[in-house]
């Protein structure tokens, strides 16, 4: 299984914000999209799932196992979302519904794609909550997002994305709003779950040090264009583009090791 993006463009109200982006994610690969704010990395991820904002138009090619996704009817795309391709958004406070229990939200994709009843869905939600190491999963699934900490909400978001065991997970800066200690825990959890399931990962970040912990290949974006594509170890030790060199200097905020780990 593979995800192939070729010559992707995204225009918003006539302005091109993603310009000719290409990359491939093979089965089980871990690829990072990295760039500064406004580089087009999140729009690239949203284009894959057909979730671009109103007024945005994608062109080029996005193929999932040979099937073209650009132009696919939303009803067909909806069958892929969560089931074959999952996504964890940057800020769970806005991604989660404040008036629904987290258990119902974890189970929603399961009920849609597997057609199970409410009682079985709750039991599955408890299992998924335990899988992402939420405390007291039997109780926590009955709570609302505002009753959880930031780290717990992000674990809920991960549980939602992985509940149907997708083959590709897109993680859009999933730790940006968390403090360093919780960030490290979430990254370790995410990597463990991805490796445990043998799924592919597309990880979006602005931090090379974070990328080094979860991805092996990196694609660097600037102003919607790919400026460098290389193994993450190369981006850390011998970046060729000025933007990557700048990202490397910024990464000094987090301790990193050239072998691809976090010190």
From TrEMBL:
Pfam families hit by this protein: ABC_tran
Domain ABC transporter: 3-248
Record keyword Transmembrane helix present: no
Entry GO MF terms: ATP binding
Lipid bilayer topology: Peripheral membrane protein
The family this protein is said to belong to: Belongs to the ABC transporter superfamily.
PANTHER family hit by this protein: DIPEPTIDE TRANSPORT ATP-BINDING PROTEIN DPPD (PTHR43297:SF2), OLIGOPEPTIDE TRANSPORT ATP-BINDING PROTEIN APPD (PTHR43297)
Protein's name in the database: ABC transporter ATP-binding protein
Organism: Microbacterium galbinum
Lineage summary: Bacteria, Bacillati, Actinomycetota, Actinomycetes, Micrococcales
């Amino acid at each position: 299984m593979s995800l192939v993006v070729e010559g992707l463009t995204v225009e918003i109200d006539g302005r091109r914000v993603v310009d000719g982006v290409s990359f491939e994610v093979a089965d089980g690969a871990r690829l990072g999209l990295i760039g500064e704010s406004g580089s087009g990395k999140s729009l690239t991820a949203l284009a894959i799932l057909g979730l671009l904002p109103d007024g945005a138009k994608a062109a080029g090619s996005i193929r999932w196992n040979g099937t073209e996704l650009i132009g696919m009817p939303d009803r067909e795309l909806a069958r892929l979302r969560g089931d074959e391709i999952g996504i964890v958004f940057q800020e769970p406070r806005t991604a989660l519904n404040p008036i629904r229990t987290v258990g119902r939200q974890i189970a929603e994709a399961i009920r849609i794609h597997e057609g199970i009843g409410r009682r079985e869905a709750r039991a599955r939600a408890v299992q998924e909550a335990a899988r992402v190491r939420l405390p007291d999963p039997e109780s926590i699934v009955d709570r609302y997002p505002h009753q959880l900490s930031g780290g717990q909400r992000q674990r809920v978001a991960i549980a939602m994305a992985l509940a149907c065991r997708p083959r590709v997970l897109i993680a859009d800066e999933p730790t940006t709003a968390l403090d360093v200690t919780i960030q490290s825990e979430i990254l370790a959890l995410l990597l463990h779950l991805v490796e445990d399931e043998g799924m592919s990962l597309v990880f979006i970040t602005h931090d090379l040090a974070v990328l080094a912990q979860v991805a092996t290949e990196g694609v660097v974006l600037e102003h919607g264009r790919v400026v460098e594509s290389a193994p993450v170890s190369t981006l850390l030790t011998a970046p060729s583009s000025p933007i990557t060199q700048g990202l490397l200097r910024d990464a000094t905020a987090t301790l990193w090791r050239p072998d691809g780990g976090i010190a």
